[in-house]
């Protein structure tokens, strides 16, 4: 009980301190902060301005991985801004601010721009950055998330990727809409977010243009370039559906298609639970190399071929599409809150299993509770604050899903549905914290839930049996695992390793 309220108070105090100490304080004049104030990743994101739109135009040559680009950023200063930072790892050639050349310097992924004149708070500002580089050769602080393949590249990663192909404000707190144009040698396909608005050929090159009109976090903007079979049709809710399968999938092509082509069916199922689908397009991309994970790129998740080695896998499709609500539309306010993404996406898999007769959520809860003995190190990672190095730990997924089921057990099905539907509706296109979710759960259920959330999210060790923790004695009995377990385990082994 003390732990949870202590964390809530500390989080509130930290936010207040960051607000009042930051040079991005509204009404002040000075440089914007070089970070968004995330304890796990203090250098990610920036202060002093708010982005509304990115126009990204890149020319990419698969033969040598050379990328040349121009990104135009539409933003509004949140203070009288004398300088600002962009998160970027490639080599900037020039920067224009409101059409005028600006001075700039770069250290790591911090691109600091000093415009010739102060940008007034609330004014319309445009930043135009010309750049180039070979993304696969650029390493910053030991990191290089860029994925080069034999026939192209995958600009896919979490939480880092955008800085390796466009400059921006790289934190989920600053979402924007995107136009993405990628020019590649003729005969190469490109898939990105949203809707394909145009495609044109000129002098041996093809330009693919994509647009997403819903606010999107920078790490969820992506493109995949290479040799793909691209399929288009009408999907769920009458929306455009597009899937793409790498030509190199071989014998995995069948199970990959048998899984991803069920996306509209999965979205219908999830919308019945969570409410209106929050984005404007749907589909998926399956790579044949380079990736060992899946990622919920907004409107179009991307999957490694490895998920389909043992046959069709709908669990990963459910997981990544549940993220369109939990993670994409409602994003983490800071990366400490990752349970709000992964716990609920993992629990969506349990609900799919329950609906399709391969194991109820209670059976899956009992299985995982018994599978990890009380002294297993698994229980030492707390989903509510896993630490920077354990953001994608198995406990965030499996213990995270168990936490959701424990909440369901304590408050009941009707209250849980009310909680999650209200959460995704009221927080749409914004961010949220675990503390805000707990407050909503207590408000909607009319119950005091300190013991439940403290045990499941913030206390190391296996939560004890008890009505307040949502754990019945049946969870201590090892039983034959439900049919869904094998697929869930294969899925999560890849997801949390990322």
TrEMBL record:
The keyword Metal-binding applies. Residues 311-456 form the Peptidase M1 membrane alanine aminopeptidase domain. The keyword Ion transport does not apply. Belongs to the peptidase M1 family. It comes from Saccharopolyspora hordei. CDD domains: M1_APN_like. GO terms for molecular function: alanyl aminopeptidase activity; metallopeptidase activity; zinc ion binding. This is Aminopeptidase N. Residues 52-220 form the Aminopeptidase N-like N-terminal domain. Its cofactor is Zn(2+). InterPro entries: Aminopeptidase_N-like_N, Aminopeptidase_N-like_N_sf, Peptidase_M1, Peptidase_M1_aminopeptidases, Peptidase_M1_dom, Peptidase_M4/M1_CTD_sf. Residues 1-26 form the signal peptide. SUPFAM superfamilies: Leukotriene A4 hydrolase N-terminal domain (SSF63737), Metalloproteases ('zincins'), catalytic domain (SSF55486). It is an enzyme of class 3 (hydrolase). It catalyses: Release of an N-terminal amino acid, Xaa-|-Yaa- from a peptide, amide or arylamide. Xaa is preferably Ala, but may be most amino acids including Pro (slow action). When a terminal hydrophobic residue is followed by a prolyl residue, the two may be released as an intact Xaa-Pro dipeptide. One of its GO terms (biological process) is proteolysis. Keywords: Aminopeptidase, Hydrolase, Metal-binding, Metalloprotease, Protease, Signal, Zinc. Its EC number is 3.4.11.2.
């Amino acid at each position: 009980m003390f732990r949870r309220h202590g964390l809530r108070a500390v989080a509130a105090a930290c936010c207040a301190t960051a607000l009042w100490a930051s040079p991005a304080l509204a009404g002040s004049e000075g440089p914007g902060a070089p970070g968004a104030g995330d304890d796990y990743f203090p250098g990610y994101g920036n202060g002093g301005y708010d982005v509304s739109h990115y126009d990204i135009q890149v020319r990419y040559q698969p033969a040598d991985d050379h990328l040349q680009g121009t990104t135009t950023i539409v933003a509004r200063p949140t203070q009288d801004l004398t300088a600002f930072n962009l998160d970027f790892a490639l080599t900037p050639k020039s920067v224009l601010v409101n059409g005028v050349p600006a001075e700039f310097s770069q250290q790591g992924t911090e691109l600091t721009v000093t415009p010739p004149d102060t940008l007034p708070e609330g004014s319309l500002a445009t930043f135009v950055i010309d750049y180039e580089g070979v993304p696969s050769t650029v390493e910053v602080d030991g990191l290089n998330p860029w994925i080069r393949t034999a026939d192209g590249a995958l600009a896919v990663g979490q939480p880092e990727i955008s800085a390796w192909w466009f400059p921006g404000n790289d934190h989920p707190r600053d979402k924007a809409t995107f136009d993405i144009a990628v020019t590649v040698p003729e005969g190469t396909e490109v898939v990105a977010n949203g809707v394909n608005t145009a495609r044109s050929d000129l002098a041996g090159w093809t330009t693919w243009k994509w647009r997403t009109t819903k606010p999107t976090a920078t790490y969820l903007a992506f493109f995949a370039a290479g040799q793909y079979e691209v399929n288009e049709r009408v999907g769920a809710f009458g929306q455009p559906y597009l899937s793409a399968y790498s030509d190199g999938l071989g014998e995995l092509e069948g199970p990959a298609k048998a899984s991803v082509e069920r996306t509209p069916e999965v979205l219908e199922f999830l919308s019945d639970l969570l409410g209106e689908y929050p984005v404007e397009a749907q589909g998926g991309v399956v790579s044949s190399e380079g990736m060992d994970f899946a990622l919920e790129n907004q409107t179009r998740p991307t999957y490694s071929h490895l998920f389909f080695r043992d046959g069709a896998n709908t669990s990963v499709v459910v997981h990544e599409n549940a993220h369109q609500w939990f993670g994409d539309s409602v994003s983490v306010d800071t990366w400490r809150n990752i349970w709000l993404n992964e716990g609920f996406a993992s629990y969506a898999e349990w609900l799919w299993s329950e609906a399709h007769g391969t194991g109820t959520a209670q059976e899956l809860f009992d299985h995982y509770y018994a599978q990890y003995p009380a002294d297993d190190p698994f229980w030492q990672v707390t989903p509510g604050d896993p630490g920077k190095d354990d953001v994608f730990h198995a406990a965030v997924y499996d213990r995270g899903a168990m936490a959701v089921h424990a909440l369901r057990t304590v408050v009941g099905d009707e209250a849980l549905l009310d909680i999650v539907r209200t959460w995704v509706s009221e927080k749409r296109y914004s961010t949220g914290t675990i503390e805000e979710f707990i407050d909503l759960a207590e408000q909607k259920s009319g119950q005091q839930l300190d013991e439940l959330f403290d045990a499941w999210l913030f206390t190391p060790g296996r939560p004890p049996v008890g009505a307040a923790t949502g754990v019945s004695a049946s969870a201590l009995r090892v039983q034959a695992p439900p049919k869904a377990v094998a697929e869930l385990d294969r899925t999560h082994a890849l997801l949390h390793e990322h």
